[in-house]
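INFO  loader      accepted 1 record
INFO  loader      residues=641
INFO  predictor   begin
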Amino acid sequence: MHKYITVLIAIFQFHAGVAQVRLPRLVRDSMVLQRDQSLPIWGWASPGERVTITHLGKKYTGKADVSGNWKIILPPTQAGGPYNMTIAGKNTITLRDVLFGDVWFCSGQSNMVHQLNIHDVTYAKVIETANFQEIRQFLVPTGTSLTSARTDLNGGSWTAAVGEAIRPFSAVAFFFAKQLFEKYHVPIGIINASVGGTPIEAWMSMEESSFYPELKSRLQQLKDSAFVRQSLSIKPVPDEVFPEKDPGISGQLKWYNQGYDVGQWKKITVPGYWEDLGHADLNGVVWFRKDFVLDEKMKAANGRLFLGRIVDADEVYLNGVRIGSTTYQYPQRRYRIPEGILKQGSNTLVVRVTNYAGKGGFVPDKQYAICTASDTVDISGEWRFRVGQIFYPSGKVQPAQVFSQQSQPAALFNAMVSPLLPYPIKGICWYQGESNVARPEIYQAYQQSLIRDWRKQWKNDTLPFIFVQLPGFQSYQYLPSQSNWAMLREAQLKSLSTPHTAMVVAIDLGEWNDIHPDNKKDVGDRMALAARHLAYGDTVTYSGPLFSRGEVRGSEMIIQFNHVAGGLTTLDGEPPASFAIAGEDKKFIPAKARIEGSKVIVWNEKISNPVYVRYAWADNPVQPNLCNSANLPASPFRTDE
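INFO  predictor   done
INFO  writer      dumping tokens
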């Protein structure tokens, strides 16, 4: 036994003696480092091992502590590069193609995630001509940690916005970076840590979350491994039962075959929801078929099929060949058509749609077409359809809550933010809120906590924080109503009371039928305007009009604004719209409005003693057109809180 222990000690000492210098995943070839700031470079080595960094001809030395952690502070470096940097201990690492410029941390949920690749029709020219060697992105891999902050990532690399490599770039972050790069001519680095469908509390640290009793209680639960295992074992109960198989797939003759006889199939209009077209309370599998004719110039061409959006899932067959599928409702359907499938003359498109709840079918007001380099064929209009399978209610009770690791307090901070520290950054861009709409009353406190928390983590109390106010979404609302989306926008607006923050108003950039609006460029451009003011000190109009105060003048309300620039106007040249007015009873009715310089006069002849005004107070206001002379839209607001 003594000999066995001696051997183990010898093995341990051998491995400890040959431990090598290791760097965090973020510190890699082609990285962008923050200019003009003291620069920590850190990593791991053997306890007590001396580590030397050679940078711009000078050497900087440090030593690993008893746990093997080391950090060396380099002096501020001006914008420039590319440079090589050498880190040496018992081994040597050479980092190549290193730039110094401005690094922005871009985070949030799906609208910050959304890549240029997803919007490659709108931004096809941007992708085709991309050659921005000095704009680079580090895409943080999605991960969660429920109980502790991690010290490193499990992957990731720095990529330049050149050629096809630009496709995975966050569209919002790229356009933001492009504006700054073209203005200041310094390298711009984007660290993109974003996850779709995630609440703000998942991005706060455990320390910050502990200030809120319900989050603190949840953190305590997450420390219990038995609780986590049990929670993960709870699965959603199916809302439906499937008493029979879909004959379109299970039968001998598949319904997507070109030779299948659809003479008995019903007619239906696409796009549209089948519940709105005479087929109520139908959840299940529904088949759609469209025959169309192509001329000689479109046959055999590489093309794309545009099917708008479909609720919920789909499988698509063209001339009997399966060309794509999507499993959930939110992505836009843009399928590439392999060469040789399209043919001159008659072609057959079949779409198998699966709907689990709510209205099923093809989302209106989207493009439905087949496009090639030579032509476009509209495929909207009359289709044929047949029900393949009906889902019946199961009668089972759903569990109160299905456990999602990425929605837990601090789970994303631990895995996707903590490993980035202490990498210096210029500022933060934040686009999130959709996942907190159900409880807007807590959002202001949470967002202000997030700002405070991240500034503490980066040890910078004035770190610029730029955030996007949510755009309009869902059905247009023509009458005053209650709105959680409006309340969340109000919470975001109130977060401006935190110093060194700026808000991008995007109320005019939404799409009623898409939670992921296609216009990402204007969002990024407006964030860049805010950055020019907040982080670079430029004198520039960076915000749309923000409500300042209101007063009564007879039967009219006089509303004054900040950030009017050269005066108020409207985006469409029409009179100001989306205003509502109320008396002491707070019963709001639509109002008329006119602009007088930097003020808006609001009235309705039916209210002789007005007290309160609202503007664009809806999930998706119909015509939120008020803006300043810089064409930046006004934030929604209310005076009746």
